[in-house]
Amino acid sequence: MQGGHMVDGSSLVHKSKFPVAAKRLTPMPSCFKTRISCSIAQPETLQTVQNTIAKQLSVEESTVTPQTKFADLGADSLDTVEILMALEEKFGVSVGEGGAENISTVQDAADLIEKVKSAASEN
């Protein structure tokens, strides 16, 4: 190695030296971590889902907003399955085996119901 360059056969290859701190990944600013969601549920569907969840979990309806997480309402996985069963009965649809796995908020549940309703009406 001569003068910051390595001799590689007949050509010179520049070897850069970076400080250790520069090699670390810089965390992404929080503005780039924003979750974007697109709700598909109709307002009536969302309202019915909110009321059903409040009733199932015995909580005040005012505490159940579209962004509310089931866990924040004290719901566990069994409660989530029971909520989905109540919603299936209320709307006359079936969300299938894996339906409970993909929802964590009231909006997720309403969107799932709306999606299943739309698919059922197309058939």
Automatic annotation (TrEMBL):
PROSITE patterns: CARRIER, PHOSPHOPANTETHEINE. Keywords: Chloroplast, Fatty acid biosynthesis, Fatty acid metabolism, Lipid biosynthesis, Lipid metabolism, Phosphopantetheine, Phosphoprotein, Plastid, Transit peptide. It is found in: Plastid, Chloroplast. Carrier of the growing fatty acid chain in fatty acid biosynthesis. GO terms for molecular function: acyl carrier activity. Residues 43-117 form the Carrier domain. This is Acyl carrier protein. Belongs to the acyl carrier protein (ACP) family. Coiled coil: none annotated. It comes from Quillaja saponaria. Its main location: plastid. GO terms for cellular component: chloroplast.
